[in-house]
Amino acid sequence: MVEETPTSSSLNTKKGSLAVLNPFIPRSQANSPPTSSPFLLRYASHLAIIVLVLSALSLSGLALPHANSPTLLPPTAAPSLGNRSYTALAGRGNLLPATHSVLVRHPVPHTSIPDRLRRGVITYTVQSGDTVSGIAANFGLKWTTIMWSNEHLEDNPDLLLPGQILNILPIDGVYHLICEGDTLAKIAKEYEVEIAAITDCPFNNVRSDADLLVGEYLIVPGGRKPYVPVVFRPTYTGPFPDDAPRGSGQFAWPTQGRLTDTFGYVRNRWHTGVDIANSKGTHVYAADRGYVRQAGWTDMGYGVLVIIDHGNGYWTYYGHLSAVWVYAGQYVEKGQWIGNIGSTGRSTGPHLHFEIRRQNEPLNPLDLLPPR
Fold it and tell me: Domain check: are 215 and 292 in the same one?
């Protein structure tokens, strides 16, 4: 067998057939190697497919989805230029509409007194269990400021009553009621301050005597009221019986409990004793032996009161009792049960108001009682 070998005529035939199949190839390139023909065929086929798809969509009338962005108008520069258009929240992109139109403050069951300078005189309603010193501490004041800002508290040591409204000064001092004939010099001298302390106080609109208006109040910063003792006439006012036992001058604690209010200043003794809090019915005992001058109700804020004259110049007072087990004119021994703790009279809770007086002048019981 004779092996056939390709000849130039066979090669030409193949090239000629390729030129016939693809008439877009120039005859001048027909004889070149077919390196780029597959790529051109692939691109042409892809383009044909895209054209066919677009044609089909156009003939079917189906519209492609598209996103419409909200039309935003420029903000109004000033009210005089008119009102700006409002677009609901639901139409602002992906924002969700709010479920509430206002913010509601969460309720807080406890209120604390702010620790800042007050801008003037405010009021406070006395609650059950309040004391003068406790109220003063809550407002950052001295307890004497509370006493000197409320005239009814000046008459008696225990005049607090739940529901009572008290004046609370922004600073320590005295709340003075301007009376006929008052002058700045007179007021300053009465409360032991300089005139400048009154005129320079930002809470007073006073520069001279002409600014003093009768019936209005004036804050006297740093002022101190002089002490005026309260005269009390007990049930028995006669002389001390010659045969009555006299006290030793050595006092015992009249009851057990928590000391809530102490005695006041040496010169300004507005709280004339000490307050000892305990449950109602707790026993109260005579601090020393003596003679009972008062045993019963009083109208001076003490409520049910027992007064014992010890025959040596000392008297002891036991106020706000719920029960009394002695009577006026009776002799009592030191440590004898004379009554029970209560909350009678002007009182914010069960406690004993205890005083020691010498020649009707209140003394600090803590100086005469033994250490606890």
Answer: no
